Amino acid sequence: MFGKLWQILSHDVGIDLGTVNTLVLVKGKGIVIREPTVVALHKKTRQVLAIGTEAKRMIGRTPAAIEAVRPLRDGVISDFDTCEAMLKYFINKVHENPGKGMFTLPKIPRPRVVVGIPSGVTEVERRAVQDACLSAGAREAYLIEEPMAAAIGAKLPVEDPEGVMIVDMGGGTCEIAIISLGGVVINRSLRVAGDELDEDIINYMRTRYGMLIGERTAEETKLEIGSAFPLDSKDSLATVVRGRDLSNGLPKSIKISAAEIREALTPTISQIVSAIQEVLEETPPELLSDIVERGIFLAGGGALLRGLDKKIAEETKMPVYVADDPLTTVVRGCGEVLNNLDLLSKVRVTGGLR
Known about the structure:
- By secondary structure, this protein is α+β, with helices and mostly antiparallel strands.
- It is 39% helix and 27% strand.
């Protein structure tokens, strides 16, 4: 009886539990939450003070008694209790507003949850994500690999007997996969992605200009003028970066060009391109011919880096396409399998009841 009641009163949700951002999709309603994966805690009591956007604003600005933490690192849970608190907050938030003009019953947050996870995680790391979802209030928690979710969200024919190649570049991991007949044939999960690009900019500013900048400044600089390939119309872009002079500890401002930031990002971009080439080398010839014809599809926030598609196309000699709204492809894929339970049974890696 209670199981049926929960099904009636709960919204089934798909979650892209990302290292940088968490997106939540409600079945039948679309994406309802897009917030940074950041939690602000009191250091001594471990009380949660803020979650999401409000917590991100605190990064680098907290007093001694408060710390802003990211409960995921490289796509996996690094702080279980904090991650559980964040998931519980998002699940409860989804159930707070059933909609205007509706007869509203008290919502019992016991939803079916589908979560996208990196393909390279261990069984222990998978179990941690599932346990966090169940502890946060889910009645069922299913996990699917992020490249599969991204391919489904990008409307690629994953169940066909033909090869599909997807590169999902998020904040903590870069997922490269060849998919056919509803399964992953070959995959490579790199723990090198958007966070490493930010770190490249921080290191570049330190070694080239003797200036220390924070994570937020590095990310803003990457978004503003970052690129992976020379773009004539964009190479004249420049921005002012502010930080601390390491020689005297005083504030310092420097004007940086797009070409300099591209130079800083080159080592990490080259590492990702090399991994794509290695996966192509391992791909069976029949599937490779399909991929040559269809091209490589880019998803995730990293796909928005200017010129990344052109860089990969030049190195692989293959067409490269950026998925529509690449930031949401994984969570949209989770939403698709909520509507198609037969597909969910094929692509899930683990999941079920507590």
